[in-house]
């Protein structure tokens, strides 16, 4: 049997791929061992960007959760390992009377024990070194939305995953979308709000609530930009150094507020992006998706130019 090649492929920000000499980790392996034991990719293929464990949902048709997140992150240079919290045939919206969507769906839901078994499998093979953990709106939400028994235990398993990953990499960045509801309505059991507020928020590195979720977490109404900025300050005090309130309805438009508190005792750096509101609700491919994307990109570009022109924003 031929010995393994003395080169590995590592992603680069300049070219799609570059060839580099084998990392030192292989030099200490005997030739017989290297023929039988696969390399630990998290060490053999270091990345300038990082390795992401993404615990989100998956649909066969349509784009939500991991199906939306993995490819863009890979394009940005991240090595992404997805765990699908659910696997459904299609979007579930209409089935639970919360939003427009398909009238039915089929699929499977991952429970807390099954999630932990996957984590144990990764750990047994020294594959648990991650720089980022991502749990998103279409990740653990899909589990909660259908009121499955054990929803609180599943969220507690997520917290155990955070703890486990930080024993291996204390610098792990945990990006959390605190999934609870939208437009004044909860679509999770009410007891989960306290779990998010008391257990999840304190361990998150970055939090991305919408307006309603930020209100639930802070106990304060948000009806203005100043309310949104103050909500960010309260969330900083609870734990996360970075907060993005993704959508605040003000005056018929949407406002995104971001806040970054780099040092304790110092005021955070905050910014705003005004986003024109399209008078429609999208849960799958709309006929005017291209136009919607164009409007979204143009509004972000305008917001970015305003931010550079006026640092106070």
Automatic annotation (TrEMBL):
Superkingdom, taxonomy of origin: Eukaryota
Similarity annotation: Belongs to the pyridoxine kinase family.
Enzyme class: transferase
Entry-linked InterPro entries: PM/HMP-P_kinase-1, PyrdxlKinase, Ribokinase-like
GO biological process, one term: pyridoxal 5'-phosphate salvage
Molecular function via GO: ATP binding; pyridoxal kinase activity
Any one GO CC term of the record: cytosol
Gene3D superfamilies documented for this protein: 3.40.1190.20
Protein name: pyridoxal kinase
Domain (Pyridoxamine kinase/Phosphomethylpyrimidine kinase) ranges: 156-248
Pfam families found in the cross-reference section: Phos_pyr_kin
The organism of origin for this protein: Linum tenue
EC number(s) per entry: 2.7.1.35
Keywords of the record: ATP-binding, Kinase, Nucleotide-binding, Transferase
């Amino acid at each position: 049997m031929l010995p393994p090649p003395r080169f590995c492929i590592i992603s680069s920000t300049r070219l799609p791929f570059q060839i580099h000499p084998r990392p030192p980790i292989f030099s200490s392996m005997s030739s017989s061992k290297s023929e039988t034991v696969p390399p630990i990719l998290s060490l053999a293929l270091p990345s300038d960007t990082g390795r992401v464990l993404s615990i989100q949902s998956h649909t066969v048709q349509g784009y939500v959760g991991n199906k939306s997140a993995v490819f863009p992150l890979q394009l940005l240079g991240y090595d992404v390992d997805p765990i699908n919290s659910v696997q459904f045939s299609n979007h579930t919206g209409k089935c639970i009377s919360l939003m427009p969507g398909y009238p039915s769906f089929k699929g499977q839901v991952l429970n807390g024990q099954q999630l932990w078994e996957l984590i144990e499998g990764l750990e047994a093979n020294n594959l648990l070194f991650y720089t980022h953990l991502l749990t998103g709106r279409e990740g653990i939400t899909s589990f909660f939305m259908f009121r499955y028994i054990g929803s609180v235990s599943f969220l507690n398993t997520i917290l155990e995953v955070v703890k486990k990953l930080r024993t291996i990499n204390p610098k792990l960045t945990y990006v959390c979308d605190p999934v609870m509801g939208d437009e004044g309505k909860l679509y999770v059991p009410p007891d989960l709000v306290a779990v998010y507020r008391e257990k999840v928020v304190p361990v998150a590195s970055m939090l991305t609530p919408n307006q309603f979720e930020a209100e639930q977490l802070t106990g304060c109404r948000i009806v203005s930009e100043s309310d949104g900025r103050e909500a960010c300050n309260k969330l900083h005090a609870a734990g996360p150094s970075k907060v993005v309130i993704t959508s605040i309805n003000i005056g018929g438009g949407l406002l995104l507020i971001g806040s970054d508190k780099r040092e304790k005792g110092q005021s955070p750096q905050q910014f705003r992006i005004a986003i024109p509101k399209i008078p429609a609700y999208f849960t799958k491919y709309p006929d005017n998706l291209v136009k919607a994307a164009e409007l979204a990109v143009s509004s972000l570009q305008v917001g970015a130019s305003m931010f550079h022109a006026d640092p106070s924003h």
